[in-house]
Amino acid sequence: MLKYFSDAAFREDLKGQDQMYVYFYSPGCGPCVEVHPKVDKFGKNTNNLVYMVHADEGKELQEQLEVTAYPSIVLIKNNKVSKAGLGAQEVINIIEDGTSNK
Length: 102
Known about the structure:
Layout: E1 2-4, H1 7-16, E2 19-25, H2 30-44, E3 49-54, H3 59-64, E4 72-77, E5 80-86, H4 88-100
Parallel strand pairs: 1-3, 2-3
Antiparallel strand pairs: 2-4, 4-5
């Protein structure tokens, strides 16, 4: 399931989800533009929750998850960071790993 970031919704979903992906992107970032459609497709085709977080949103969350550049993705399992990746290839690797775990 794909969702766009809202702090209140994210915090509520975090309580109720065993596993979720959080994808951080900036529309002006070339690698983000390249990988964004793949993340979007993954989010629409998985049973897991996938949050799309624009660079201008969720600054506190970005600090907590130590996101320093885009694109980045974080896999959260049981309220703990399970995997994190920076760069288009890392994002693709993590979502492909999630696809194979279906």
